Amino acid sequence: MNSHAARPISPDLDIARIDAFLRGRISGLSGTPRFAPIAGGQSNPTFFVDYDDRSLVLRKQPPGELLPSAHAVDREFRVMSALASTGVPVPRMVLFHPDRDIVGTPFFVMERLHGRVFGTYALDGCTPDERWAMYGSMAETMARLHRVDPSKVGLADFGKPGNYFARQVARWTRQWEMSRTCPNPWLDHLIRWLPANLPEGEETAICHGDFRMGNLMFHPTKPQVIAVLDWELSTLGHPLADVAFNAMAWRTLPAEYGGILGLDHAALGIPDETDYLERYYAAAGRHDRAHPFHFAFALFRFAVIFEGIAARAAAGNAAAGNAAQSGRLGPAFARRAVEIVEGRPPDLTPIP
User: Fold this and answer.
1) Which residues is 125 bridged to in the sheet?
2) Among 65-69, 109-113, 171-175, whose mean pLDDT is lowest?
3) How many C-beta atoms surround the C-beta of residue 330 within 10 A?
4) CB of 72 within 8 A of CB of 224?
5) pTM, to two decimals
6) Least confident range of 71-75, 214-218, 252-256
7) What is the DSSP string of 273-305?
8) Could you tell me how far CA 257 lies from the centroid of its own chain?
9) CB of 212 within 8 A of CB of 245?
10) How far apart are CA 94 and CA 26, in angstroms?
């Protein structure tokens, strides 16, 4: 259930140095600090830091050479700080340190929240009624984010204006070219198809960039989102990019990073994709809808992200222990995107 459980501490951190730094910046810390890495993330290494009177979370960049614009902990800190004054649930930010003298990379510290984080959209251990309400809370939380005016929370310059999808397709194409470790013909097909099928119209909102079930924390007992986590891909962009990414689970198998394709949705209390998206559209006050391009783009981008995980695993710089296995999901998500652009029904056979 909780994909943010603790695992053994990283040997490359100087606990005494971190403790001294935190005590110098945060008043009133008492007792011996207890550090524990948080399992589940493939991106920025994250740690519980518990004192007798304060529970914190430290989030840093991974070691080694990084792709351009990746692992942007400074942007995570900035956007969550800005959203603290809105109705979007985020942890409270404590401090950001831009230098490498303490943990080897820039990092930030935030207050620790206690709740439930689910690794898959199946929401294991919940009742059908709970699942239905939790999906509703997820849709409404995403709509709440997209209704925030960036200029009113100091984020007017958080991304480039205009041509969002064209710029994103170009960016993730470059990321694929820099992280390519083996052939992926589905990605090559999408790199040709997406620029030729860009949607018309421009719209700008704060986009999370990775708005999925595994990046939400729910109340310990209630079916309510209490925090949106992992903002490293956030930017100003088109809200339908978030929407399509969030809804990928209906188009991917449980073996494909916790999708729900092929599950008995009615028995589990999971809404079908149309009903779920209508819940979001109503809460967001939207009249247009996500189209095949948006879903294909979302899957393309996620495929490139997993190809990057595979590249980091090959270089020994991945944050999670199962990064090499997760990196094999790149072809799986690229195949799903090609199924959409070609109008084919999904193949229910997982890629080995």
Assistant:
1) none
2) 65-69
3) 28
4) no
5) 0.91
6) 71-75
7) HHHHHHHHHHHHT--S---HHHHHHHHHHHHHH
8) 12
9) yes
10) 8
